[in-house]
Write a structure and sequence with these properties.
Elements (H helix, E strand, L loop, with lengths): L12 H5 L2 E5 L5 H10 L5 E5 L11 H19 L3 E4 L2 H14 L5 E2 L5 H7 L4 E6 L1 H4 L2 H8 L6 E6 L3 H7 L2 H13 L8 E4 L8 H8 L4 E3 L2 H14 L11 E5 L3 H12 L2
EC number: 5.1.1.3
Protein name: Glutamate racemase
InterPro entries: Asp/Glu/hydantoin_racemase, Asp/Glu_race, Asp/Glu_racemase_AS_1, Glu_race
């Protein structure tokens, strides 16, 4: 005798009211959260800063994947999130495939250096990429770059220490490091620079000052926000009545996270 298949119920109002989880190794993911709040003003969010284990970009891949899986479980159990945004290039490279395989019911959005849009924008055919060593050495990034090998030439610059300097709010060190790394572009005909770490948009004013107006900066916040909207819409999970509230969680300094949010998000 055939058994009727289980009926899939549509999302309830309670499902739509649940927050979206966003995590990063520190405050860099605030650049993604900023774009998400602009794109989805009626959604509520939980932002998880794993500052106690930062920076991810200088850690091993297995460490980053373990932390990513643990954070996802925490956000699901503590906050009943309805979607997850991995607001970290290094964590995306190390763990987004594991997160999607383990949490098949959960919309998971990752970030990656915007080299494809940059290849479409460049006029000289030379694109700079600022990123962490963890991102640049990952198999995921290499596959992405290989798929674009006929589209442009990429100048890869591992920006050791830059995420940590932004994280700590050390403006003098941020400027010194930006000056060092932009000099590595000088020998190339670069007209487009990919900010391949979610921390780096918070140094964009310094980078524009050092590079001038001829080099355009490309980041990933808006595409990530649009993809998040699309996935939630597909599942009927968009919240029409949320307040846009953000809850904060960190393994590091609560005061440092609040100060960063006040500085970069006016929260």
């Amino acid at each position: 005798m055939d058994h009727p298949s289980a009926r899939v119920l549509p999302p309830s109002a309670a499902d739509r009211d649940r927050p979206i989880g966003v995590f990063d190794s520190g405050v860099g993911g605030l650049s993604i959260l900023r774009a998400l709040r602009t794109e989805l003003p009626q959604e509520d969010f939980v932002y998880f800063s794993d500052a106690g284990h930062a920076p991810y970009g200088e850690k091993g891949e297995s460490f980053v994947s373990d932390r990513s899986l643990a954070i996802a479980v925490d956000l699901l159990e503590q906050h009943r999130i309805k979607g997850l945004v991995v607001a970290c290039n290094t964590a995306t490279a190390a763990a987004v495939h594991l997160l999607r395989a383990r949490h098949t019911h959960l919309p998971v959005v990752g970030v990656e250096p915007a080299v494809k849009p940059a290849a479409a924008l460049t006029k000289t055919g030379h694109v700079g990429v600022f990123a962490t060593r963890g991102t640049l050495s990952s198999a995921k990034f290499r596959r992405l770059l290989d798929s674009l090998q006929h589209e442009a030439q990429f100048v890869l610059v591992p920006c050791d220490g830059l995420a940590a300097a932004i994280e700590s709010g050390d403006d003098a060190q941020v400027r010194a490091l930006c000056d060092r790394y932009t000099r590595e572009l000088a020998a190339h005909d670069v007209d487009t620079l990919v900010l391949g770490c979610t921390h780096y948009p918070f140094a964009s004013d310094v980078l524009r000052e050092l590079l001038g107006e001829k080099i355009q900066l490309v980041e990933t916040g808006q595409p990530v926000a649009r993809q998040t909207r699309r996935l939630l819409e597909e599942k009927g999970l968009l919240n029409p009545n949320g307040s846009g509230a953000v809850r904060w969680q960190t393994t590091g300094s609560t005061d440092a996270l609040r100060q960063a949010a006040a500085r970069w998000l006016s929260l």
